[in-house]
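Summary for the steering committee. The consortium agreed at its last meeting that each partner would contribute one worked example illustrating the joint modelling workflow. Our contribution is presented below. We chose a case with several input lines so that the handling of multiple components could be demonstrated. No manual editing was applied between input and output; the record is shown as generated.
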Amino acid sequence: GAGVSQSPSNKVTEKGKDVELRCDPISGHTALYWYRQSLGQGLEFLIYFQGNSAPDKSGLPSDRFSAERTGGSVSTLTIQRTQQEDSAVYLCASSDGSLRTDTQYFGPGTRLTVL
Amino acid sequence: GDSVTQMEGPVTLSEEAFLTINCTYTATGYPSLFWYVQYPGEGLQLLLKATKADDKGSNKGFEATYRKETTSFHLEKGSVQVSDSAVYFCALSDSGGSNYKLTFGKGTLLTVNP
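What follows is the complete predicted structure of the assembly.
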């Protein structure tokens, strides 16, 4: 079956604009994660969804960041009033969600560049 | 909080050389441990995992053993190939709570020359 997909693959925006990043997880996976990969900080956890609820938002760096998930499937990460420090690759992963040993499958990422 | 420390490299080896990438961790619970690999221009892929102490994960000639006494999960391969050139990430998923988020090390860039 299809893997995790993300869109767009690249996004260039101007400082102060809002952006939306989309993630389509593997069908049937109940758990969905967003991570950010940047040169300075490495790979950082942002938010975790189980179904449509987000019990852990502890990694979101500021209130400009938000995410939602609908129908237990597609998720959207929104960054408002983008800043240059938001430039990074945003990765989405999904897993079965029932066991701590479950493999997380990663999408190809969205490379965000804020000018 | 949880953390993962791995040698940052870069590591440059000749083909058929022996590879070790060190990884140590700090966790409050009983974590599962993972190695992920990112080939040039590609996404993160799981390379291997181990879920409890003394387990050995293996895949594609790579191995790592979960050592609770030394809180380590070092990655080894006996004979590397040019195609192994990639960035390798050590990660853990803690059993505390119901969130199985991954905590990653900084990554190690491996370059294998022919």
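DSSP finds no helices and twelve strands in chain B. The mean pLDDT of chain B is 92.
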